[in-house]
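User: Okay, second chain of the day. Same drill as before: sequence in, structure tokens out.
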Amino acid sequence: MQIKRDPSFLRALKKLDKVKRQAVHKAIEIFIGNPLDPRLKNHPLKGKLKGHRAISADDNLRIIFKEVDNYLVVIFIDAGSHDRVYRRKK
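Assistant: Same drill. Structure tokens below.
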């Protein structure tokens, strides 16, 4: 699995406090080991984010990503609160 981090993901990560950043990093570690680990609640998105997927880093913290060729390449796009990332326009 090749992991890429979009500049928007890196900007979003910088805006999170230390605890939330650690939760994101932990979720990504789990994801690399098994993208379908049930703790992550990996799911496809609909509407304006159709074609993207999301995982949960905690109860209210989501990571938006795009996967290519059955997880051969994963591009992390955004991270933040549930309400903020799902309001994202793209």
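The first strand starts at residue 2 and ends at 5.

User: Thanks, on to the next one.
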